[in-house]
UniProtKB/TrEMBL annotation:
Transmembrane segments: none annotated. Residues 2-101 form the VapC9 PIN-like domain. This is VapC9 PIN-like domain-containing protein. Pfam families: PIN_9. CDD domains: PIN_VapC_AF0591-like.
Amino acid sequence: MFEESASLLLSNPECVVPRQVLEELERIASGPGPIHRRRAARLAIEALRRESCRVVDTSAESADEAILALALSDQEAIVATADNELRRRLREKGLPNIYYRRSRHGLMLEGD
């Protein structure tokens, strides 16, 4: 995903992750949920570490609020997410996002 997003953006963006997101992924990975969800969370954690993503602290209470706060604080930020509700909130605020589109088997950029 990181290589494809760099190709889509025609640049090599810095990966920044709110601590709340990492903590949520860790809870999911070690929690009682479905195995495919736990596995996806573990893969996401591994990818964040492999790509040396910078983990940042925010005062937000939830992962989504932390993502929104960071995106609003940086006019060059582009959020990568598979969360449809978060994408809706990003659109409402005019914030760009990258998401995976199954029908096209690839990443799509939404917004400016």
